[in-house]
TrEMBL record:
PROSITE patterns: RRM
GO molecular function, one term: RNA binding
Taxonomic superkingdom: Eukaryota
Higher taxonomy: Eukaryota, Metazoa, Chordata, Craniata, Vertebrata
Coiled-coil segments on the chain, per record: none
Domain RRM: 56-128
Name the record gives this protein: RNA-binding protein 14-like
UniProt keyword terms in alphabetical order: RNA-binding
């Protein structure tokens, strides 16, 4: 029987953490992907709040709740070393500022679809929000609702550019 390759401390095989469900995710911070074979280290981050830095911004969607800014920085540093300028993490998404467009393209190619905490993340070029738009949050929406229903309701008042129903632990 072939032996398994050595894994970093705390690393779980993809099927171990992804098949056991959410309870095991806190013990399995990084699943990696079948092709990557790397795990980010946890080192101090130099990401700071402040003015937007020059460079290229990449959007990361589907970021699991247990992921940290440091973890995202390390993941991108392994994929595209030396080009991460800033990491801005929000709930379920992040913006990563990279040094140049070539680095952003390499990061997208290497990390789009990557498993983080057993969730596939989407990595793509950031797109600016359309001008002259307003983002509105509507709470207490039934879990059975679909975005098309909300879109029809709001179209009565103004054109709707985007409509998303967030599904998650909160609703």
């Amino acid at each position: 029987m072939a032996s398994e390759p050595a894994r970093p401390p705390g690393h779980k095989r993809q099927k171990d953490c992804c098949q056991r469900g959410a309870a095991s995710l806190s013990r399995a911070p990084f699943c990696g992907s079948a092709s990557s074979g790397f795990s980010p280290s946890l080192r101090a981050s130099s990401g700071r709040a402040g003015p937007v830095q020059p460079g290229v911004e990449v959007f990361v969607g589907g970021v699991p709740g247990g992921a940290s800014r440091v973890e995202l920085r390390d993941l991108f540093e392994v994929a595209v070393p030396g080009v991460v300028m800033k990491v801005a993490l929000m709930k379920q998404f992040a913006f990563i500022h990279l040094h140049d467009e070539a680095a952003a393209e390499r990061a997208i190619q290497k990390l789009n679809g990557h498993l983080l905490h057993c969730h596939r993340v989407v990595v793509e070029f950031s797109r600016p929000r359309p001008t002259h738009t307003v983002k509105t949050f509507v709470g207490n929406v039934s879990a059975a609702s679909i975005s098309g229903e909300l879109r029809v309701l709001f179209q009565e008042f103004r054109p709707v550019i985007e409509c998303h129903i967030m599904k998650g632990a909160w609703g």
